Amino acid sequence: MHTRQELEKVHKRILPYIHKTPVLTSRLLNELTGADLFFKCENFQRMGAFKMRGATNAILKLSQEQQQKGVVTHSSGNFAQAISLAAKTLGVPAYIVMPSSAPKVKKEAVKTYGGNITECPPTLKDREETAEKIMRETGAAFLHPSNDLDVILGQGTAAMELLEEQNDLEYIVTPVGGGGLVAGTSLAAHFFGKNCKTIGAEPFEVDDAYRSLQSGKIETNKTTNTIGDGLKTQLGDKNFPIIRQYVSEIIRVEEIEIIEALRLIWERMKIIVEPSSATALAAVLREKEKFRNRKVGIVISGGNVDLNQLPF
Asked: Which parts of the sequence belong to the Tryptophan synthase beta chain-like PALP domain (predicted)?
């Protein structure tokens, strides 16, 4: 059982190491959706994504002895950067397993933040085996990008801050990839909101979380053909029970809807966000009737975009 006090402790623990990111509004986007939208801009977080929160909390929860031996994770993107920067800030060695197919820009970012990269073939099996080998050789503690309770609680602090600033939200919408953000957000909405529902947004191309809620068990994806490169992973046994209990529904969106929402945010709000982040606005645009005249929080999950790969 999780408690309000637990989330408050996590927030206090990580506050010296993270940015308290701004909440932005857009009159035009309010008119387009018919709702009052409040964007929690984690694209302005350190290393450019919400994952800095969970990474920092997970490292701080380790014993001093564990911290000296370091941490290891496997990630092709934002969590690799988050662990690298959080570890560097806290003086902890970080070993990052990245698939050989990971974008060069993300590998460069990990190096900049001081992460020790080991490349492996781009399959989950190879990623896990390489991480296990490093753990055996170094004694480093493994931290999962989304299926770790300390990570999940850290991610929930973004919605906590949003609700502190805007305490009458009726919905909070977040993208769904591995499930850490939506699970943490749903706990924050439950404990700090006033009857505030959490809704996940997911591409049709990788709708494993939607199907998991329908079937009651963790489903997988056969393809990962989505522009939302942060949403290709699947739920885990730590976050799925939280999602089942506290997330009210998951809205699926088409690729073209993600691209249109991405463009709207870039053009109208003048901020750089990654395609995964735009999925949440795409869900609100798709289901306008549900959100009409409601106060809706949207978590902009990150802004780490490869400018050579833009869809417009």
From this structure: 15-302
